[in-house]
Design a protein that fits this description.
Chains A, B: Residues 18-181 form the HD domain. The structure is a homodimer. The first copy, chain A, has helices spanning 6-18, 39-53, 62-71, 76-79, 91-106, 111-126, 130-149, 153-157, 162-176, 178-198; strands spanning 25-29, 36-38. By secondary structure, chain A is mainly alpha-helical. The radius of gyration of chain A is 18 Å and the shape is globular.
């Protein structure tokens, strides 16, 4: 393919490359059990979480939260998805792979535009702004909701206990929104209580 | 699942229902040929088109374009995807099914919030605001790009000619952005010219 202007050509090349995020599979299964979720549809779902749960994050710029969530997994095109509950992860190696991915992928765009999107990803990763904290919290909340809807999901796959769920998901979700975490806590407690009752 | 406040419970129910858009399949194949695209990942891809191609729509509120694109296919959860190049479509029946879908799905949310999202979908469908026209144009441009990347794609499936592509995709894409349509025209002409040269 050729295109008339160099800037437009680079934008279209980047958008064509994004196609590959539809083939990056995550650990979460779809609720209907038919297959695993991919990172592109996960990103859409999270952007909808931001639109719909905005009332639980007063003062947060929801438009920027949506942008953070749209780009937050793009590095996985090169670096792959790292399961959240996987033990023994080499965090330095993962960060190195994701940084190299960000340099290549955002480098496809015209300079300032690539830098703007890269800055959004850096902001998400740093989780220091209210927008990034809300985005990170939603990224933890969505798999919790999927696991509850599939009666265990990846918690069963990785033998994750109630205490581990509370310890790993609590801080990011509560940091995003105390009332979202209060609701999630009730749902998580009820799920594991029902499990114990069945055992 | 139960949740503490009625409003939060309704928001979570709506987000859980959105899960189903990941299982609505479109006619377009992924570029790697592995399967058909679904409407959730398509919606993410389009939101990225809006972020990246914003320089081609000066004066347009890109944040609202992104919101329009995130919600534009949600009615397909009930009404299904209607192939763009399918002949003999019953447009009144499709509109009826999509309106019923919008009433049910957006009705899951608390009143004013459901009405706000429903209004975004109505705005997209009406294609009268600059934001909706840009969103509609991107929704036409993305399948064109996928078809070019797969050397024909749905154009071959539906025996669509160069003249039909130009007639069907030209007005919405040119209405969104003349320079995007100029670029797309070059790419479409080159694709069909190469086809003729191979024949």
């Amino acid at each position: 393919m050729t295109a008339p202007s160099d800037a437009l050509s680079r934008r279209l090349s980047f958008l064509a490359e994004l196609e590959k995020l539809k083939s990056v599979t995550r650990q979460s299964r779809l609720v209907d059990g038919s297959r695993n979720e991919n990172s592109a549809e996960h990103s859409w779902h999270l952007a909808m979480f931001a639109m719909v749960l905005a009332p639980h994050a007063p003062g947060v710029d929801v438009g920027r939260v949506i942008e953070l969530l749209l780009v937050h997994d793009i590095v996985e095109i090169d670096a792959g998805d790292v399961p959240y509950h996987l033990a023994g992860k080499d965090l330095a190696k993962i960060a190195e792979a994701e940084n190299a991915a960000a340099a290549r992928l955002y480098g496809l765009l015209p300079g300032a535009e690539g830098q703007r999107l890269r800055a959004l990803w850096d902001e998400f990763e740093a989780a220091e702004t209210p927008e990034a904290r809300f985005a990170k919290g939603l990224d933890r909340l969505q798999p919790v909701l999927l696991n509850l809807m599939t009666d265990g999901g990846t918690w069963d796959d990785f033998a994750v206990t109630e205490e581990q769920v509370m310890a790993r998901c609590g801080p990011p979700i509560e940091g995003a929104s105390p009332d979202l975490w209060a609701a999630a806590t009730d749902l998580i407690r009820a799920h594991f209580a029902a499990r114990r009752a069945d055992a």
